[in-house]
Amino acid sequence: MGAMQAFRKLVAIYLGVVGVGTAAQFVLQGFYDSVDASADGWQIISWLMAVALVLMLATVIHESRAAGHEAGAPVTRSWLTAKASLYATVFFALLFFWNWFTLEWGRGDAMHDLQYWRLIDAGVAVLAVSTALRAWRAGPSED
Question: What pTM does this model have?
Answer without folding.
Answer: 0.87
